[in-house]
Amino acid sequence: MPGAEPVIRGTVLQWFIRVAQTVLGLAPETIRYTTLDSLKSVESRAKDELSEIHLPRKVGTVNSLSDALDIIYKYINGHGSRCGKEADISGGFPPELTAEVAEYIRVFGGFGKEKRKFFDLCEDVVALAELGAFFSFCGRRRTETGRIEYHYVFTEVLGSVETLNEKLEYALNLRSVVHRLVENDAPLNTIALGVTTCIARYLSRIPYVTRTSLFNRGITFEYLRLEPGNVLRVSGFSILSVAELVKLVRRAGIVTPIYILIRRYPSKNDIERSRGLKKLKEIVDDIAKDLLLYVNNTKSVIASKDGRYVVVRDPIYLYNIVRRAKVFLDSLDKQTENLFDSYLKSNKYSIKSVLEGIVSGIGKIATGLR
Questions:
Q1: Which DSSP letter does residue 78 get?
Q2: What's the whole-model pTM score?
């Protein structure tokens, strides 16, 4: 969409487009390099959600993910609108996607006017935004005021994955993991740990040079929350750095054990059916809280013999994880153990092996053996 990027800069629309560009490996501000194969891959993986709209609500002719894919198919085949040309989108600039950023402009030195009354968007761009919303959508949650809040998560790490199929796999896996946490009212610490374990798993398949470059630049994830209505409200937008947390879980060798716990995070219905699962939820939340406290609280910085500086953190948070896990394991009876094992749905790992793996890895970090 040449020449139009300044119009949408700073809007939620641009954020969704950037997500789609990263996952699909597109050149900035264009969709001309999208291949039919890439869209077919999306279609095959999203077969259960083709009839849904993942934007806060429908915009123009985009009423579902299927509509978005059809529009881009037509564009690639030369039968759709062209970037830069206006499409028939009623209402002009979609108010649901402007949020509160750059909403008003001054026209010819006059009073402030609503931007959306002066600019139209081609349907290709809105279709691409719907694709970005699909890749990043991770559930709805009811707020304290009773309104429905839409949650979206994205990390630039996805752009470092080489093949399209792997990007789609990682993006949808991240979406699935965070979706379970959001839908079940997990706190932000637990969501951050869920994203961290997903990123740590991706990094194991990325070349060493690329991995090193990512750590040097900093590993972050973006967390967007929207409340749709007559006027869209951005109820939250966070850019959270998880580089140190990624390093910690990789160094401790606890990526897989934590991932197993996160992907089976108990829901309210699960806990109502089996009250013992409330303890599993508490364990996951406590691990997330203490790991975040550990990496974000520096006890001191000292200089090593080779002239480098070493950050020393307070191991009390790691000891808390080890102590709680050991107390839980010591009190675990056979009936509760069987309940947790059947709930985790893992042929390879039991609740005992998962927690013992976390205790071993965290314990070695706390005592300086790793």
A1: T
A2: 0.83
